Fold this sequence. Notes:
Layout: H1 5-15, E1 38-42, E2 47-51, H2 53-57, E3 69-71, E4 77-78, E5 93-98, E6 104-110, E7 113-119, H3 121-130, E8 142-147, E9 154-159, H4 160-173, H5 183-192
Antiparallel strand pairs: 1-2, 1-3, 4-9, 5-6, 5-8, 6-7, 8-9
Helix pairs in contact: 1-4, 4-5
Amino acid sequence: MTTDGALARLIRSAADRTTAAVAEVCDLCAAPVADEHAHLYDIGQDEVRCVCGPCSVLFAGAGAGAGHYRLVPRRRVRLPHVDTTVLGVPVGLVFFVPRMDGTVTAQGPSPAGAMRWEVDAAAWQELAGTCPQLATVEPEVEALLVNTVHGLDHHWIVPIDDCYRMVAVVRSEWRGLSGGGRVWPAVERFFEELTERP
């Protein structure tokens, strides 16, 4: 994951809330975009790009973007508890992204950005057998987002841009070696503000 484009703007805005807001523009045509706007996932660069309404329409159909860009969906689905221990990732704040090639990656936030691990694809399929909604996660652009830190039990299917927002929250609030007193309340607020969307 690089820190260019939309992700960099998310990190900068979360890191310095006192700075005046900079008007965002479409990363394709440079037209201004509204506060609530669509995103494209650039598969080759592994980053999210902001797009205006007209540009987003160009990528709405199946096969649009020639396999390089995928329109990030908006749906969010709250799941019941999902036992992710079968995936072998020993952290409580993580998101799992199935890829177009059948692999699955786990990414966890850190003060330096997202750490990435490869997850056994057969273990992901086994987990999807116990939670059929996981089979509906769109490769590259949706993720299973999990927070079990401090006894919490949050499991969501979310768009990939939500995951990058969560990483930006951790980067902006982390202090010292252990994170300090601000990071976990900020993460809890992030999850409290998630709402289901079709």
